[in-house]
Amino acid sequence: MRIIICYGNSLRGDDGFGLDVGKILKSKNLQNTKIIILHQLVPELTLDLLYAKELVFVDASYSNENSYKLACDIANLQNNNQLSHHISYRQILAILNDVYNIYPKYEVFSMLCNNFDEVVDMDLYMECVMKCAEYLD
Predict the structure, then answer these.
(1) What distance in Å separates the CA atoms of residue 135 and residue 34, rounded to the nearest whole number?
(2) CA count, 13 A, side-chain hemisphere, 120
(3) Among candidate residues 42, 37, 41, 46, the one with its CA nearest the CA of residue 18
(4) Residue 122 is part of a domain; what is its CATH number?
(5) Buried b (16+ CB within 10 A) or exposed e, 54-82
(6) What CA–CA distance (Å, rounded) separates 106 from 129?
(7) Largest CA distance in the chain
C-alpha cells in the first residue's frame, strides 16, 4: 500500500500546500493508496505507517531564493534521535527503521516558498498544488 502524508498549516499562507494537495488527492479515491492529512508530523503517526510499502511526504519548504517551485528531496536518511511533538519526515523514517525494523520506499515533494504569512501569488500556488496532485494521482 502507498500512503501519502500531506501536512502543513493553512493559517500560514504557503504552508497550506500539503493540505491542499491532500484534499485534491483524497477526492480522487486512489486505488491502493491512503491519504493522511495532518497539521504536523508526530511520532504517533508511525503506527499508521507500519504496513506501507511506499511513503510520500508532501509539504511546503522554506527557501530564501525560490518561491512557487516544486522540489523533491532524495537525500540519504541520517538518524536524528531528537524527538519532540513536531518532527521531520526523516525522524518518522528513523522511528520506522530503528523501532520497527521497517524500511519503506519514500519520496518527498515540497513546494519551495519564502512567505508563511500569506499566499503571495495564488495562481502560481495553485499551479504547484495541481501539478503535485496530478503527478501523485
Answers:
(1) 16
(2) 9
(3) 37
(4) 3.40.50.1450
(5) ebbbbbbbeeeeebbebeeeeeeeeeeee
(6) 20
(7) 43
62-118 pLDDT tens trace: 888 878 888 876 454 344 444 444 689 999 999 999 999 999 999 999 999 888 888
- Domain, as residue range, for 53: 2-136
Integer Cα distance of 5 and 69 in angstroms: 19
pTM: 0.88
Which grid coordinates are listed for 62? Answer: 522554506
Q: Facing residues of 33 across strands?
A: 2
pLDDT in tens, 29-70: 999 999 999 999 999 999 999 999 999 999 998 888 878 888
